[in-house]
Specification:
about 220 residues
């Protein structure tokens, strides 16, 4: 993007969302969607939508040990995340989500299946949008209205939510850049970024790939 620095332009932004279904015991992830955008021109690079079998809830149960890919059942969240991870290139990446609490938790629990994804910094699109819409109260929906994003009414699928978050993120970045609020990737990272806990070495890809991905 012309108003942002070279680091921003060289970054691929992976907008990520899990669709949840409420069940006894707590919400269960039933799908994951991702949309990758070029930081240079907002060009869509790839999309993913994967169903999840709903094997576990997001309740306060004790965290289980991460399972390797060959240990994962068909339709698991880990295998779905691997479909996102395999599309990553050597270019720097950031994950973007609305708030990102659920995304961070599931990436952490399935870090053995998708270690590169789990090692990426996650950006909170809502926090970023609030910087350019300081008078707006609430979450994604009121911020979207303020930024001119027309959302589909009612509950959205994971793919629909990814589109909404991507549009809010894009317009927030552009509004802040136009007003001179920011011009560097590092400034946005300070506002909205959250670095993950380190992934254990035994789960990580070869060092040559790591260095290119985790800048």
């Amino acid at each position: 993007m012309r108003m942002m620095d070279a680091d921003f332009s060289a970054t691929t932004f992976v907008v990520l969302d899990f669709e949840l279904r409420n069940q006894l015991g707590g919400p269960v992830p039933v799908a994951v969607a991702a949309l990758a955008l070029s930081g240079q021109d907002w060009r869509p690079l790839w999309r993913v939508h994967e169903a999840i079998g709903g094997e576990r809830t997001l309740s306060s149960e004790k965290p289980r040990a991460p399972r390797l890919p060959h240990e994962l059942p068909e339709g698991s969240a880990g295998l779905a995340l691997r479909q996102v991870e395999r599309r990553l290139t050597e270019q720097p990446h950031r994950i973007v989500a609305a708030l990102g609490v659920i995304e961070a938790a599931l990436l952490r629990s399935d870090r053995a299946a998708a270690p590169r994804l789990a090692s990426l910094t996650l950006w909170d699109a809502v926090s970023l949008a609030r910087r350019v819409c300081p008078d707006v109260e609430g979450g994604l929906e009121p911020l979207a209205r303020s930024l001119g994003v027309a959302l589909v009414p009612g509950r959205r699928s994971a793919t629909g939510e990814v589109w909404a978050v991507a549009e809010v993120f894009r317009r927030a970045v552009e509004r802040g850049a136009t007003s001179g609020r920011w011009s560097k990737l590092s400034q946005l990272e300070d506002i909205a970024g959250c670095a993950p806990k380190p992934v254990e070495e035994e789960y990580l890809p070869p060092a040559a790939i790591q260095e290119a991905l985790f800048d």
